[in-house]
Amino acid sequence: MKTYHNLQQALENPEDVIALSLPKKSIRSLPDNIGTLKNVEKINLAYNNLKDLPASFAQLHKLKHLKLGSNNLHQVPAVLMQMPQLEFLNIRRNRLKALPETIHHITQLKTLIVYANQLNTLPESMAKLPCLHTIDLSENFDLSLFNVCKVMAKATQRFGLHIRRLHFHQLPDSFVKLQKLERLDVSDNGDIDLDHLIDLLLQMPQCTYLNLGNRHARIPKKLEKLSYLEGLTTAQVEENQHIDWSVFTQLKQLDLSYNRLREIPAWVLQLRHLEELKLRNNVLGKLPEKLLQFSKLRHLRFAQMGIRK
After folding, report:
1. Which structural domain range is residue 73 located in?
2. Could you report the per-residue pLDDT of 155-189, keeping only the tens digit for each?
């Protein structure tokens, strides 16, 4: 079995298709016999002109990973509610104004990406998704954060929330009710009140991963109170030397991309729990040998830098 990049060829060899990749093919609709791809596990239909999916799509019982971004969808295709085995659904950059109340029927859904749509609220049933791990609501400019807090406060599983580029100043006080929130991405909200955000997070010690992005010229010193963080993303280390970054001794994931660093800060070399380090788009001359000796480090990314071998 293999990945097919041509729909007709895939339909001629239905049992051989494990993945179907058809982005940017100007597809307006799918044929009914798409349901014959009994073994397909991944489908990429991004950047087409789809308005819906055929009923036969429900016959793809092994499909777990579906990309429908950048199409012409005004609603989530109803047939997906008949596919409880779906684990990953990317439906970004469409024209969705709402998610269906029956979305909890996709019982195995782990990742839901719906950024850059026109959502105002979330359905109450979102909190009933038993496996939901990641929700990306970024760039839904009319989204009510009060509603998000109300709905997701009822979640029973730990989850991560991406709310980039919503242009809000403050998170509502009810945000502290998200007691199952463990990862938060508020990057590219340049006017966000970081003092207030930190005060909220101090009441949510289960939230141990924070993405601040790169738009904050000055980060409050009280960030040090979140020394228990296990994941941190910031592009403002050099501009915030008033912060004692060495207090973040529990970090497992650290993203210092876009910091214009010329050398690895000394405090980074003391992070013995570090598993993932991202250093993209800096101007480092070389990586210190000490870093390469980290026993738990599994992922090291430093693309687009002038590193000498």
Report:
1. 2-212
2. 999 999 999 999 899 999 999 999 999 999 999 98
